[in-house]
Amino acid sequence: MIRRYFPKSTEELLHWYERYISPIALVVGFLLDNFFFLTRIDILQTHLIFFSYLILVGASIILLHFIEAGRMRNRYVVHASPLIPVVMQFAFGGLFSGYLALYSRSASIAVSWIFVLIIAGLLIGNERFRHLYSQLVFQVSLYFTVLFSFLIFFLPVVLLHIGPLMFIMSGITSLLVITLFIWLLDRVVPEIVRKDIRRIVVVIAVIFGSFNILYFANIIPPLPLALKDAGVYHSVVRTSGGDYQLLAEPVPWYASYLQYNTQYHATAGEGVYVYSAIFAPSGLSTVILHQWQRYDEGLHLWMTADILRFAIVGGRDGGYRGYSFKSAPIPGKWRVNVITEYGQLIGRISFTVMSASTSAKLESSTQ
Hints:
By secondary structure, the protein is an alpha+beta fold. It is 49% helix and 23% strand. It has 9 helices and 11 strands.
């Protein structure tokens, strides 16, 4: 007796894919995107990957409803039609995985965790959405979501400008593209589109409004900018070779990733340096601010002590490096918000200044 290892029907194939292949593909796809394929937001490879997924989704939606309307006569295509939602699911998964890699890399988790969590939820939930991928309203709502998410960082990279104007242009462009897509779909299968057009318009309006609320509440990360490195130091010196020589107190390995509540032991009159390296696309120039804030224990509020600004130029893999300095800070809780000139938070360095009678033991590093 020969045991059958391969599924014999389309439904069995789908079940086999969802049970064995899909969970592995989810993890592998995210790792490949994060470490190999989507290494920079401003290169052609990144844009081609996203464009390919977006075109694949649009084509799958049109083909699926073309078959559903009975206009497809090729029996092989009709027989394979249950696989189309899986292809659509795969393309959406690739988009969500790529967005999670890029947005989480850019995000200051202190503020942007909500948006990153939404994308992560869409990525994980995408593996259980197959039964919804046959519904036009669901398809169009997700398609508009991925279009808007893509244009938020694509237009600034192309036009070499960031800020609210670019976000507004991204929103208008996404509305124009989805309108054109719905018009094209209506030309192919009008009886299906017109049945759901009111719900489609409402859903798009809700998504569009939600994106605007998240952006102007500074919850959407400020792509294409990304904080590559940051920290608090006792000394920052730029060498003749263009590197930065940094002196810092040794911290546990995990603290260098969290950059949270670092203890800074300062002797009388000693100042504090905060260093940051911010990635920006090639050709993009902008202004970055270091907003120094001290926590007032009596008022239970963060009070702004200084705002120091400097210009950055994009293109360097490790980010444009810069630093700010605060002389003789008052002991207590401090943080430095690395923000854009429009107030968007790129990153945050938190630390506690503690009075010390002797100089702290320091470790040297080069950036």
